[in-house]
Design a protein that fits this description.
alpha/beta, Rossmann fold, 5-stranded parallel β-sheet, 3-stranded antiparallel β-sheet, 9 helices, 8 strands, binds 2'-deoxycytidine-5'-monophosphate
Amino acid sequence: MSGFVVAIDGKAGSGKSTTAKGVAKRLNFFYLDTGAMYRAFTLKYLRIKKTKDDNIDFELVYRLLENTTIELAQHNDELRVFLDGEDVSKEIRSPEVNQLVSPISAIKEVREWMVKKQREIAQGKNIVCEGRDMTTVVFPDAQVKIFMDADLPTRAERRRKELLEKGINISLEESLNNLKYRDDYDSSREHSLLKKADDAIVIDTTNLTIEQEIELVEKIVKDKLKTFTR
Ligand code: DC
């Protein structure tokens, strides 16, 4: 069997990455972390941009899109992200990338590039993908569609801990501010804004453990798989 898509959307810190990763592992599906792709492109822009201010150099963005390769590879249990052949899995989680990734991912041309690439990667595979527009734009025909959410303080604390595990120490306040900023940006931009697909199943993860989240989604997928014929 091939071509079964589990699409998960949600805000930063809602638990979608951990859940998607866990479900993909249990079902032996490919895990497509689309946020990591936007992050890798943002990193490339950050490394090359000349301007010191916050204004985005659109000409540079368009130029970079013409000669960028982003690849995802599963290595043991880890997803590795390669930017032009270089492993940038760690660097794409830096505060600098966190800060700029929302405005960069709001650019129409960047989104078009990513959507095309994401569909290519998914071709012929069983995948679990997660991001902001998986259920609405990239895979509107996905067999399973899920929208994850959790309250803001819970998401901020999760994000802070996640960064700490990677050796990056930020305060809860910084984490809250970054999330608020990104929530607003991702939910109000002109192209592919974060919204729930009409037929997506909503899961509020505020009071769920990671294990419970994974089990819940795994059950939804398994029930659907029983009825799936290519
Ligand atoms: O899930 P994440 O925090 O790694 O995502 C990083 C940013 O990328 C997020 O602020 C919005 C953007 N993004 C997006 O616009 N569309 C996606 N499919 C995935 C991420």
